[in-house]
């Protein structure tokens, strides 16, 4: 594992503190002010606005260096969408996770129709580089129409009870939405989820690893990887 080349030039706080603040904010359901308070308890005096700027600047930089899960033709894509209110208007967060609960991609759109579903599938194919074994969705007909255009040879199962994995993936974001008292812009939501989901992908163990020792080992390895990527090794 190689060290990060992220530059912390002109920042008076060391990389370890910046990386920890960003980790706390994106990993746990904490507000910026609560992260500020947790750092203060350790004798680190930094404003929540500074933490916000760190999250915006370094969060995206960290994500670019985090390794992605290697795609496989045996993968099963679970697709779902959830409504998010921004400025009093409804928007839809379209998300795809695989059989392990790993977030593959997500996109905020103003539509909940075939065009929006097709955009998600096209993005997924481009990012993954290959088609899955199967896609699983709820009964929204837009998925079937989009699938026929984008990947006609892929099996499609449409059933409310089969798609709990995708629906469950919305829960952590809902907790953050309440803590943050909503999102102020589409761009802000898209930037946040790109970092939030990548950090969650790294630290949350796959669904098949249920034993406590396996989960502990996964978290230890994830933390070591995070420190290497952020150049925050003590």
UniProtKB/TrEMBL annotation:
GO BP annotations, alphabetical order: DNA recombination; transposition
Domain of life according to the entry: Bacteria
Keyword flag DNA-binding: yes
Organism: Rhizobium leguminosarum
Keyword DNA-binding among record annotations: yes
Name of the molecule in the record: Transposase
Molecular function GO labels: DNA binding
Swiss-Prot/TrEMBL keywords: DNA recombination, DNA-binding, Plasmid, Transposition
Domain DDE span(s) in chain numbering: 76-203
